Amino acid sequence: MIDSSAGGVTSTSSTRSGRRPGNPDTRRQILEAAREAFAANGFAKASIRRIAALAGVDPALVHHYFGSKDDLFLATVEVEINPRMVVEQLVAGGTDGLGTRMIGAILQVWESPAGASLVAAVRTAVGDPGSATAIGQFVTTEIVARLLRSMHHAPAEAERRGALIVSQVLGVVIGRYVLRVGALAAMDRADLVASVGPTLQYYLTGELPDPAG
Q1: Average confidence (pLDDT) over 119-145
Q2: pLDDT tens for residues 163-189?
Q3: 122-154 in b/e burial notation, b at 16+ Cβ within 10 A?
Q4: I need a surface site. Which of 38, 49, 72, 97 has the fewest CB within 10 A?
Q5: Ramachandran region, residue 56 (left: φ > 0; alpha: ψ -120 to 50; beta: rest)
């Protein structure tokens, strides 16, 4: 669970746990095919139809066992978090303070039981360009782009802001949880939220320099 009182949002894995487990061999085949497809094509280009073909099953079975493509991607890295629900709750809190709530929610996820799987996924991605692309595309399209969509930026502006947000967030989580960089790893979470939140808020809503300049 992510507690809104700690700068995050309330969420659980219950939205995914109700799906019937089904045949473990079929699930394993789909997961192996999904990992292969995401690594080879990235998140954006790996389709459910292609994953089903690699697994030798009907696409309906992929939906039956895992739901949407983002649910399937999360299953490949064993993370029991519904990003759409998290984003919806962040946006529902309004624009003011969104950057602080955003980094608070992210840090809570990384310090939850899901954190170990996330660290393992990032370490794998460091040596696997395909996996790194898939993770980057997933974070950009399924989390950051959804947050920015509520602010109605022009497409090019939203893309620029999204890239800055992703660079900041990934820099923090990799430095803190994967590389364990000195003071960053030791910093109290509340202090880190207070330090990073305003920067994310600026990337979300601030007036950025004119690219033409």
Answers
A1: 78
A2: 999 999 989 999 999 889 999 999 999
A3: beebeeeebbbbbbbbbbbebbbbbbbebeebe
A4: 49
A5: left
